[in-house]
């Protein structure tokens, strides 16, 4: 596939994925908000569970929640299902374009011992297997034990992230756990929520009283989806932030962000003392992750003492330029020679001293602090070379024109 076609496939799929996701998650947020704010009807209305007046765009809306009656269904009934479907389809193809095409350069952990095809198979087979495990547990074990089920599910997801962290790159790990959550969510819609609602409608058409427990079971899965939304949104954007996935314990950072997202979502869903505690804990957890993922201060910056930098051996620019030429320029040049990247990623070019200096902080973040570049350490940058780059930057990133 040509690089230009790959880039446009990535763009179009990402755009469609974002649009479908907004529609799906927006409807999830709205209906949970609506359920939590329904009030008892002011007048006697048989079969009305609750009602709510709203105002928007100059109009006033009265929403009522009904228990459907035997022998009657609405003439026109709107279903919310295609938003989930298109979100998953576009996400799955986007996963393929970014992580499975082009030699899987973004996919594999640089120290993974498994064959590339085995890792690719694990990454894809994980999605249906995760659904089977999740569905069986919540159908037969935790159907009436929601809190215990949530804790066990979190532990299982964290364990899976830990295992995958040994074969997937950091950014691929985050996206694959996000893809797993997305698969659970869309499978909930099509295999548990929609069938339950259809069975209730079928019963009313036969003149029977529907089994309202099916509605409660569907609502449980719908709430699962709702609590997964914020963690999934974080994982969707995580590949832009190497300080999260570039950690040695990136699976632990991911687990922490899942808890942060779920805690904030709980506060948005339920207004009580515990939800306020969950929000405070989520905020505290986010701050803890911020400090945990912060790069260690280099010796030259400690105590604001510039003499420490002078005490270290000065790294000459020629050494830096040699490292950049051997490890980075194959991708980051005007005419890349890499077998995958035919245009410089993010437009970053490291051919001249000025270009290298201008990108010094980005080089520090990606190659020194998080060590997420080169991708998969494809060119074999050594730890000593990373340290030399960091030392040169700490000493002021001096280039020949600036030398005394």
Descriptive report:
With 404 residues, the chain is mostly helical. It folds into 2 domains: 291 residues, no CATH class; 104 residues, no CATH class. It is built from 14 helices and 2 strands. The protein has a two-stranded antiparallel ribbon with strand order 1-2. A hairpin with a 2-residue loop joins strand 1 and strand 2. The longest helix is centred in the middle third of the chain and has 36 residues. The chain is elongated. About 2% of the residues have low confidence.
Shape: elongated
- Tally of separate helices: 14
Cα distance spanning the termini = 49 Å
What gyration radius follows from the Cα positions, in whole Å? 26 Å
For the biggest β-sheet, the strand order reads: 1-2
How many domains, as an integer? 2
- Reading the helices and strands in chain order gives HEEHHHHHHHHHHHHH
Oligomer: single chain
The averaged pLDDT comes out at 89
Number of DSSP strands?
A: 2
Class from secondary-structure proportions:
mainly alpha
Portion of residues in beta strands equals under 5%
Stretches with pLDDT under 50, minimum 5 residues: 299-307
Helix percent reads: 55-70%
For the largest beta-sheet, the strand count, sense and barrel status come to: 2 strands, antiparallel
């Amino acid at each position: 596939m040509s690089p230009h076609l790959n880039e446009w496939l990535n763009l179009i799929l990402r755009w469609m994925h974002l649009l479908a996701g907004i529609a799906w998650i927006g409807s999830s947020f709205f209906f949970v908000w609506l359920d939590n704010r329904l009030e008892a009807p002011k007048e006697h209305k048989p079969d009305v569970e609750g009602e709510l007046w709203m105002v928007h765009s100059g109009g006033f809306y009265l929403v009522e929640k009904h228990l459907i009656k035997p022998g009657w269904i609405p003439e026109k009934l709107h279903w919310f299902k295609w938003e989930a479907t298109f979100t998953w389809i576009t996400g799955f193809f986007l996963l393929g374009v970014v992580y499975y095409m082009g030699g899987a350069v973004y996919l594999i952990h640089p120290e993974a011992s498994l064959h590339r095809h085995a890792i690719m198979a694990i990454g894809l087979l994980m999605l249906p297997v995760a659904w089977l495990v999740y569905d069986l547990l919540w159908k037969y074990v935790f159907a009436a034990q929601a809190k215990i089920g949530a804790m066990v599910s979190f532990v299982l997801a964290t364990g899976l992230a830990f295992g995958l962290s040994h074969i997937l790159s950091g950014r691929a790990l985050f996206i694959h756990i996000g893809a797993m959550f997305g698969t659970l969510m869309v499978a909930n819609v099509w295999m548990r929520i929609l069938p339950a609602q259809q069975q209730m409608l079928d019963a009313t058409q036969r003149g029977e009283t529907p089994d309202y427990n099916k509605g409660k079971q569907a609502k449980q899965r719908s709430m699962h989806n709702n609590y997964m939304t914020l963690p999934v949104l974080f994982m969707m954007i995580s590949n832009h932030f190497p300080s999260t996935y570039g950690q040695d314990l990136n699976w632990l950072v991911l687990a922490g962000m899942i808890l942060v997202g779920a805690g904030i979502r709980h506060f948005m869903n339920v207004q009580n003392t515990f939800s306020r505690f969950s929000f405070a804990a989520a905020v505290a957890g986010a701050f803890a992750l911020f400090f945990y993922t912060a790069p260690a201060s280099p010796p030259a910056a400690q105590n604001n003492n510039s003499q420490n930098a002078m005490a270290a051996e000065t790294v000459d620019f020629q050494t830096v330029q040699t490292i950049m030429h051997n490890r980075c320029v194959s991708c980051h040049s005007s005419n890349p020679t890499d077998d995958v990247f035919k245009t410089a990623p993010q437009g970053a070019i490291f051919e001249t001293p000025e270009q290298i200096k201008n990108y010094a902080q980005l080089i520090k973040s990606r190659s020194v602090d998080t060590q997420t570049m080169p991708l998969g350490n494809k060119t074999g940058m050594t730890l000593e070379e990373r340290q030399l780059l960091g030392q040169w930057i700490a000493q002021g990133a001096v280039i020949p024109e600036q030398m005394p």
